[in-house]
Design goal:
Oligomer: single chain
Number of strands: 0
Number of helices: 11
Shape: flat
Distance between the termini: 40 Å
Radius of gyration: 22 Å
Strand content: under 5%
Length: 228
């Protein structure tokens, strides 16, 4: 099936659609922002637009295409940071920007990971990632490897943080609840490296632990890419 981006917005015949694709996407985004991605359906979007559910199929052919439009609307409206010419700094800034965008809209990461994105907004973001690593003289396969490695790190960190947020996880409360069990692990001495982190690590107790972990992880990742 031809992707929605390759089809004209209005059919060559029949009544002209009452809403634009952008309006349909906007309705889906509003629902997802307020209630999460699970609340988005063709029926809900139609109701948001005061339209019949079947009328949406004049704009798109499936819920997957609705999600494509929603993701691309967000990506089109959020401009990737411009390059400075310093590739490590540029990748770091782009990664931080992408992380913030997905944390602001918790449904976005899940929707973006569901399948490849090829709309105008997604293409612009892909170009931003690849232009940074492509200017270093890498071949096409290496460009993809470097860019996707950084993007996978960003997605993984975001999904980890969102899963904790969704579960209502509080690290200090969780640690306190372990009580004697945690003390027994330390006293047993079977896992010396784990015990050292339990006793000495400060990061898990800090209010900014996710930002701290992300920044430090990005630094190690970029240093490794530079060495390679």
């Amino acid at each position: 099936m031809e992707p929605i981006w390759g089809r004209p917005e209005a059919a060559a015949y029949g009544p002209r659609p009452a809403h634009s694709r952008d309006a349909v996407a906007g309705a889906g985004v509003r629902i997802a922002d307020a209630e999460g991605i699970a609340a988005v359906s063709m029926r809900r979007v139609a109701a948001e637009l005061n339209a019949g559910t079947t009328s949406l199929y004049r704009y798109l052919k499936s819920k997957d295409e609705l999600l494509d439009l929603m993701v691309d609307k967000v990506l089109r409206e959020d401009e990737p940071p411009g390059p400075s010419g310093a590739w490590k700094a540029d990748l770091r800034v782009l990664a931080e920007h992408a992380r913030a965008m997905m944390l602001e809209r918790p449904w976005l990461a899940e929707a973006m990971m569901a399948r490849p994105r090829i709309g105008p907004g997604a293409l612009r973001w892909s170009e931003a990632w690849l232009s940074i690593v492509g200017d270093r003289g890498r071949d096409a396969d290496e460009m993809l490897t470097v860019a996707s490695t950084v993007m996978k790190f960003v997605f993984g960190a975001v999904m980890w943080e969102l899963s904790e947020r969704g579960a209502g996880y509080d690290p200090q409360s969780w640690m306190d609840a372990q009580g004697a069990y945690g003390d027994a692990i330390i006293a047993g001495g079977r896992y010396p490296h784990l015990i050292r982190t339990m006793v000495e690590a400060e990061g898990p107790h800090s209010a900014d632990r996710h930002q701290r972990s992300f920044s430090q992880g990005m630094e190690h990742l970029l240093n490794g890419l530079e060495a390679a």
